[in-house]
């Protein structure tokens, strides 16, 4: 059907192929029957506009201004065999943090949070106590999001982790 239409197109002036006729009518010498005004206005728009917006979308993670907004979180933390059961503690910024600390060792441990890994600027230093025993720590998370540092002050080499404030 399409072939027939294309053949008929040779005879009809101004007929444009639906596919976009690439054969320039004036160049073909066999098209003597075609009038001189054989549709030179067939706009071959085969230039795909490269409108790919591959720019990285800058995700502006707007931190919700809930600092000190009364958020509270409870974290279970276990110390056993001179190791914490997690290497990461995550809390919302400015939240009231409650840590249920379970020391299952007979040796003393604690939880202490600092601003940096060099144990600068303590955010919170929990009481050191021997187990097996449990203690509940409560403190307020820093208002500024970031990666802080926590450790056991008795075992600053073995018992460390990231204290992440979101
Ligand atoms: Cu310890």
Molecular structure report:
With 166 residues, this protein is mainly beta. The protein has two domains: 1-48, no CATH class; 72-165, Cupredoxins -  blue copper proteins (Immunoglobulin-like). 6% of the residues lie in helices and 31% in strands. The protein has one helix at 2-11, and strands spanning 72-79, 88-91, 96-103, 108-109, 112-114, 122-125, 129-130, 133-140, 146-151, 160-165. The strands form three sheets. Strands 2-10-9-5-6 form a five-stranded mixed beta sheet, with no helix packed on it. Strands 1-3-8 form a three-stranded mixed beta sheet, with no helix packed on it. A hairpin with a 7-residue loop joins strand 5 and strand 6. The protein is globular and about 35 Å long. The two termini are 66 Å apart. It binds copper (II) ion. Copper (II) ion is lined by residues 79, 82, 109, 152, 154-155, 159. Copper (II) ion (CU) binds next to loops.
